[in-house]
Predict the structure.
Amino acid sequence: MTLLDRLIALTLPLVPKPIVRKVSSRYIAGETATDALRVAEGLNARGIHATMDILGEDIHQIDQAHRAQKAYMDLLDEIHRRKVDSNVSIKLSQFGLKIDKNVCVDLVDQLVGHARELNNFVRIDMEDSSCTSDTLQVYRELRGRHSNVGVVIQAYLRRTMADIATLEDLKPNYRLCKGVYIEPRKIAFRDMRIINLNYVAILERLFKNGSHVGIATHDEIIVWHAMRLIRELKLPPSAYEFQMLLGVDEELRDLIRAQGHNLRVYIPFGPDWYAYSVRRLRENPRLAGYVLKAMFK
Ligand SMILES: Cc1cc2nc3c(=O)[nH]c(=O)nc-3n(C[C@H](O)[C@H](O)[C@H](O)COP(=O)(O)OP(=O)(O)OC[C@H]3O[C@@H](n4cnc5c(N)ncnc54)[C@H](O)[C@@H]3O)c2cc1C
């Protein structure tokens, strides 16, 4: 990233919302489930799986969690009705994790149960480090009752290697990503070289433990290492998939597919687009160009 990109990333909260909306539209399917289902169907037609995320986090009242659960239940029904190849990704904070953990567990438990009836799967996204322990604990509790639920772990966290050791008995279905939240140095590695080394070390350990891994990255170095490990360990396609975000590096997506690997695209949608958009824009190496162009158009 250039200095200007970094400066704009830092001052994003000052950028007018309509500009943020405009430059982040490539990352979001739209405001409704119909928009997301249409995008997923387009991807499915090209042999790509999908996962859908109804945007919205940091809720303040527990009835918002009930509404989120209802929206996800309806989404699972629509995925089933339209025979779309997609599972769902959820954030526990949207299900009330920080308001009432018991309610959160109940709501997610019902959702995962409903997904199982429809032969589908629920992925629990990982949020900032204030949620890590609770998220992993809720995941363990759910796994006592369901097998169609997976969780995300972040290679930038210093604790992740220890966390996967404690979950090893469950052989979890993981998504491994670098991690997107801004964390203090004592909690997360800051140096991208260390994050990458940790990513590859974690990936190798998960593969060797027999976990299914969603390799979530757009970093071609990580993709290269993942393909090397897949080859060396002679892993079947059922042991892993690559995962990428909607609107990011479609060329890499096609290169991965062309080599015959399974790939899933994360499709966020909904009216609560702002927090997600800011996280995506902060990672875009051409942020300044996009923002300036949108401002002067
Ligand atoms: C499917 C999926 C699910 C995820 N779920 C979570 C989660 O639950 N919790 C969490 O903390 N994080 C999650 N993330 C985000 C992840 O942690 C990283 O922040 C993000 O993927 C960028 O890291 P990277 O591995 O692509 O590597 P980077 O080094 O950040 O990026 C590699 C290259 O990809 C390109 N690129 C990356 N981002 C963008 C962008 N926004 N716009 C344009 N180009 C870009 C650039 O060319 C960049 O040089 C998820 C990512 C994916 C792909």
Observations:
- Residues 91 and 127 are 7 Å apart (CA to CA).
- The two ends are 23 Å apart (CA to CA).
